[in-house]
Amino acid sequence: MNASTAFALPDGMTSLPRGPRHFGPKAAEEAAKIVAGPPEALFGRLLADQESETTLLLALHVVESFLASAEAPAPQPLDAADVAAWTAGVRREIAPAVRALRDRPRETRELVLRQRTPLTLLGACWLDTVSQAATQPAVVVNRLFGHHWVLQGEGEFARGQLARSRRSLAQQHVHVPAVESAGFLRETEARPLTALIAAFHLALSRLPASFLPEVVGVHYAMAALGTDSLLLGDEPLLAEEDVRPLVEEYLLLAGKSPTGEDDRARMLRAVALVHDLEREHVRTLTELADRHDGLSLEGRVARIVERHAAFAGRQHRGVRVGKRRLADWLGDPDLDLREFVAQFRESRQMRTDADGSCRFLKSIKFGGPMFGIFDEREAAVFTEWSRAIAAGESPGLDFAPETAGDARFEERAAALRALRPARLVLEDAPVGLDDRHLLHRVVNVEQYPHILPVARRLAESGLRDAEILFRHGSGGKLTDASYFDYTPEALMERVDRVYWDKLVDPYRPLTEIPDRDEVVFQQTTYALGSLVDGAWAHRIGNLGRSDRRSDAMLFSIYADEMGRGDLAKNHITLIHQVLASMDIHLPHIREAEFLDQGDLPDHLYGFSLHQLCLSLFPDSLYNEILGYNLGIEMFGLGEMRLHEIQKLRRHNFDVSYEEAHLSIDNFSAGHARQSADIVVSYLEDVRRRSGEEAVQREWRRVWRGYASFAYFVEHHLVRQAREQEQEQQEEAELLI
């Protein structure tokens, strides 16, 4: 192997190669339809679907379109201090407008906060999956992941930035549904520009490895501007001074990189883009507030009608307003609000009775047919309007449709629809790829999204095959995947028995140590799996997927595997140290040169492929990931680890990787015990939500995830099981 291609610590990578991106033709068709549609649909797809190539292509469209609109200043900032000064100038520019928004009347302020919420509650979503097999253990990625760990409440999501922001909003009487709910954008009354900017943030979160320089720039600029903290009046978990060292480090690394000049320009362009977007959104919020403060009473009524009209349904029977039925008015997609309010003002529903009320006000009170439709503040507006009508006040019908941010939205939407992503290759994934080429594509899935259907089939095939151990798993040397009906007690009894009977009690110190070459070879059989350590969980707990207790628990395990941002504790760093101590210097697993490495055996690629394929489907294969996690975390204990440490020490090899797992995976309170607790926690949530029958159904999937791990480590048992089942099948055929 050419030494120039060998990977060496520390990993100073500042960007991944910008080669062609491969998508299937069907994904291109689907993406084109969504891009041509409303921004709400784009936002919804990017948020809800993290498992398809269509989503990745949408993300590519959005990110490239937005970046094309931005330019770094000339002359360009030279160092982190220059970037900070540049951004501080923009903050000084927008801060007075943001503070002025906080001083608006309560109703206007709440409207502004709701409008900003689609950005506030996305948080730093671009960090969700920046840590992955293709990017670890890069110095800058670990710095970013350390920030992610802090923003996620250090494993307690309720202490994280998004939860803090939601509490700040609630204190200011702004209550919106979960980001992932279908009505989120509707409840926030998001303007088209708001939805489109939010879609950019989501798009970047789907391609963070491909746009690493941009992630650095966006992350710094959003923290340094601090628009959300200014608007909410709270303190961020990460302020400018916390994030500036990231920029310093990135620019230092870029100065040593062959692509450094381009990477630096990309990072600065992303900073400029955030400056532009935050200016645009603050202007939009100001336009929105100005219009609302200037609304006539009829204008406020029109806003309420506009908000609720789409959900009025057809249940108003014969109620008429003017010459039209109310249902026809409200069902009209081109509803003329000014005309409707004028007609409604004169309708019998608004005529004041002798008791000072009217039919409409009675209908929205308790016991009326429309009770609960309007909130307290909306009901107060209608009451005020009724009194104004009764007093004979002149109508104020000079209100106009809401247009805040629309001009800029149209420009950005037109640019998005016109853009064709660079270096795009439309083709289905080739069939019959060998394991080396398949692994390369799965690791670099952002460059090869068309591999996703292949990865899905491979993951599901591995899970189906592993079910053979439901019947034969008790004979495993290190596992017991034989099936049993779930109860928390039954699971704990099983993991206790595996721990003592298979991992701990059989241990005896080696009396003979294999020679150096044999120890090195044995380590190479483990190394490929170690090079993707933790990858099975790298997409767990990201935006819109943190409501289960098990999400935070599994995210914490992944964070431990990555050293919580500390390079010295990062398990990918540790395995490279071990290999280097054996004079094994591989290219990074993300690099094309890894296809030609000759140190790691070909027949063991399946293990790493399986866990990487599982990781790409964290929603639809969530149960299986929980079970796989249980298997692999228990594997770090007992006889095998202790023997490996003994052998490595004898030959003066690095033992840090083995020792880290023996310690962190401990069965008392470490990952092994936590992994069992995660399963119990998840299934308890299922029981409360759906009942016992659903628990057993979900459990079977969890356990086949565990079995799929056992399938790759119990080679002898699997061969025996296949032979036994083949014999049974042949005997059954003879009887027939």
Task: Explain briefly what this protein structure is.
With 736 residues, the chain is mainly α.
Strand content: under 5%
Query: Widest sheet: strand order?
Result: 1-4
How many DSSP E strands? 4
Which outline best applies? globular
Question: How is the main sheet built?
Answer: 2 strands, parallel
Q: Class by helix and strand content?
A: mainly alpha
What count of helical segments does DSSP give? 33
* Unreliably modeled segments: none
Mean pLDDT across every amino acid position: 95
Description:
The protein has 736 residues and is mostly helical. Helix content is 60%, strand content 1%. The protein contains 33 helices and 4 strands. It has helices at residues 25-35, 39-48, 53-68, 80-102, 106-120, 139-151, 161-171, 184-188, 192-206, 212-225, 227-232, 240-254, 260-293, 297-308, 326-331, 337-346, 359-364, 376-390, 406-418, 435-443, 452-466, 468-472, 488-504, 516-530, 549-561, 571-581, 605-615, 622-634, 639-650, 656-664, 671-690, 692-713, 715-735; strands at 21-23, 320-321, 324-325, 424-426. The chain starts with 20 loop residues before the first strand and ends with a helix.
